Sequence to fold (253 residues):
Amino acid sequence: MHDHIANQPFVRGSWEDPAHACEYVAAVSDVGLWKSERLLIDRYLPRDGTVLDVGCGAGRTTFGMYEDGYGRLIGFDLSAAMIAAARRIAVERGHPIRFDVGDAVSMPYDDVSFHGALFSAQGFMCIPGRERRLHALREVRRVLRPGAHFIFTTHDRASPRFLEFWREEQDRWDRGEQDARLLEFGDRLIPDSGVLTYIHIPTRTEVARLVADAGFILVEDRLRSELAVESEAIRSFSAECRMWVVRRPQERA
Fold:
């Protein structure tokens, strides 16, 4: 069932939509790295290491990191349209960055290949189904070196702004009247650039349990607004979110 929903147009197809791709291309220049992202990247991802940018889209974070001195980067995304756009931008800017197309639940990289990884802009929660998200986390853990960090973001179902919505949504699920296309409570289909896009809105406890089940150590999690005051452009690009930092444990001698 998880594979079925993963192939629905609102999961895979929405990221190939030209209008959606254009929005993410514009974000490379118009949005760039968030202050909060830069703070955590500077703190946890080594500039002299190889860093994997999972769900990189058109390269907003990848190019931002490269221009901040991260010279060994690989951008990785499910969408061929996004990766094609990222490759064009790389050529235009003269940035020798590798961009690969693939699925985060089965990445084409060797074990312990990377010194750090990033999955920005709530992209991790665009993976449908807890089982697939757990597979993706375990894949990130597999390709990271022991002791390396992984930064990712999620929305937070406890956000005061949406508490009433989630109370009503729980009632719909209790009555069996939820959208039949949804897989789990917390799933949403959100109009974005004229297309429906799947995303799961988790609780903090849910994500912390997922992190532990994947074999990571939780280092910190903070609301974006607790880390930095972002520009209007960034707040328009992405609503408030929770930013997570986890670490692959060191191997025992």
Remarks:
- The first strand starts at residue 51 and ends at 54.
- Residues 93 and 142 are 32 Å apart (CA to CA).
- The domain at 2-246 is CATH 3.40.50.150 (Rossmann fold).
